[in-house]
Design goal:
Keywords: Membrane, Transmembrane, Transmembrane helix. This protein is mainly alpha-helical. Helices cover 88% and strands 0% of the residues. The mean pLDDT is 80.
Length: 98
């Protein structure tokens, strides 16, 4: 069984790969002289920097949320089972309506 830390690590690695590919795209277009490419390259570079810091913050928040949900479910399993059952009933009723 895959643990939540392994899932979070895989998600983080995938985001890092996406950021690396975007950075490679920026580097590949560095020799272009067109003004539109230069402005697009600068905008992408700014977004990459912002995204890198945002991914780290989001990853920390996600791990905290998962850990708190895990603690709650272990502390009160019947609440989690009951709320899941009610959510399933509501979802089934909502989907069966025409």
């Amino acid at each position: 069984m895959v643990s939540k830390k392994d899932n979070a690590k895989a998600m983080s690695q995938e985001m890092q790969h996406i950021i690396e590919h975007a950075h490679a795209l920026v580097e590949a277009t560095s020799g272009e002289l067109d003004d539109r490419i230069k402005t697009a390259r600068a905008a992408l570079q700014e977004r990459l920097v912002a995204t890198r810091s945002g991914v780290d913050e989001l990853e920390d928040q996600l791990l905290e949320t998962v850990e708190s949900a895990d603690k709650f479910i272990h502390a009160k399993p019947y609440y989690a089972i009951g709320s899941t059952f009610i959510a399933g009933l509501f979802l089934g009723w909502f989907m069966s309506r025409k």
